[in-house]
Amino acid sequence: MQKRNILLILLIIPMVFSLIGCSKSEDTISNTDNLKSKGETKNELDEKKSDSEDENEQDLLNNKEDVPKKEGVPSPLSGLYGPEEKIKRRPVAVMIDNHPRARWQAGLSKAEIIYEFLVEGPYTRYMAMFLKNDPKHIGPVRSARPYFITTSLEYDAVYVHCGGSQQALSDIKKLRLADIDALASKADVFWRYYKTGKRAPNNLYTNIDVIRRTQKERRYRNKGEFEGLKFNEKDIQIDGIKANEVIIKYFPNNVTKYVYDEEQKVYKRYKDGKLHIDEYNNEEIIAKNIIIQEAKTRVIDNKGRLSIDLIGKGKGMYITNGKAIEITWEKDTKRSKTKYIDKNGNEIRLNPGVTWIQVTKANPNITIK
């Protein structure tokens, strides 16, 4: 009896497992049939999943916040982007007074390139280049000198000034500059701005709107025809000596200083120990790039007027992002571009932003630390 029961149990167990196996198989087939009825096989599901992942990845790429869209075109003066209709114009170069009685100046915070040159005595003067921005106040405006004219020519600029030395006025006529002289303009193009507390000749002002209007009235060509400086597409760190502070002593009582702001990655500018600001909007004057250009300088008359050799070759420094490298410069003709060359013989590319070009005597008194 016991043997019969054991035999029955042994026969029943395989049958149970067989039924369980059939049930699982039928469920699997049933589920597969359902998938087929929807037109989707396992391979098709895998493909659909892959497509979905690709779409999600593309959405993430399209929504990246660290890739800002640049609108317009880059300015040949700064590498910064602006509306094409503005960037394609001729730049405006304005002579700006830097006599102690003229400070502070208006409009420098909106310039893209600013030059500082020696003039008579222990003084310097600025030439500010405007293209992307149209400031409402610029000044004080001062007189022309031949070396400023030579510099403005390489930018094909509309040259704005108030009178000038005899040689400068001769050069303007001979070279047929597109010039706007306060002494030969309508009364509303320049004005004395007495609210500044300054006196003549240190209080003559203008703005870009009236300069552009006068340019049109005089039928000066509007489209710019010049090469411009070379710029990196994005901010680049150069391999050079430490340059967190740059001090240029034109004279003991005429000192230009730059101090690097590591957080903003720009240099703040000081003149004779005071932070340089724009008197119109109270913005600090800054520089992304600083170029020191050494040039042979000599006095040519009893009034202390200077001759500064800008055609030829010379030494210099390029400074940006807390670093400085030695460079050379070269310029072939009055209208040709000044090229700034690195130690490998390549024209340097500046970082996008405002550039101050400090033109000094040969072997200047400069400290970089």
Q: What is the assigned CATH homologous superfamily of the largest domain?
A: YerB-like
Q: What proportion of the residues form beta strands (DSSP E)? A: 25-35%
Number of helices: 6
- The name of the CATH topology of the largest domain is YerB-like fold
The chain-level structural class is alpha+beta
Give the name of the CATH architecture of the largest domain: 3-Layer(bba) Sandwich
Low-confidence stretches: 1-65
Please indicate the count of domains. 2
CATH class of the largest domain: Alpha Beta
Determine the oligomeric state from the structure. Answer: single chain
How far from one another are the termini? 109 Å
Shape: globular
Characterize the biggest β-sheet: 11 strands, mixed
Give the SSE string: HHEEHEEEHEHEEEHEEEEEEEEEEEEEE
Based on DSSP secondary structure assignment, what is the total number of beta strands? Answer: 23
Overall helicity: 10-25%
Radius of gyration from CA coordinates = 35 Å
Mean pLDDT: 87
Offer a concise description of the structure:
It comes from Thermohalobacter berrensis. This protein is of the alpha+beta class and about 375 residues long. Helix content is about 25%, strand content about 30%.
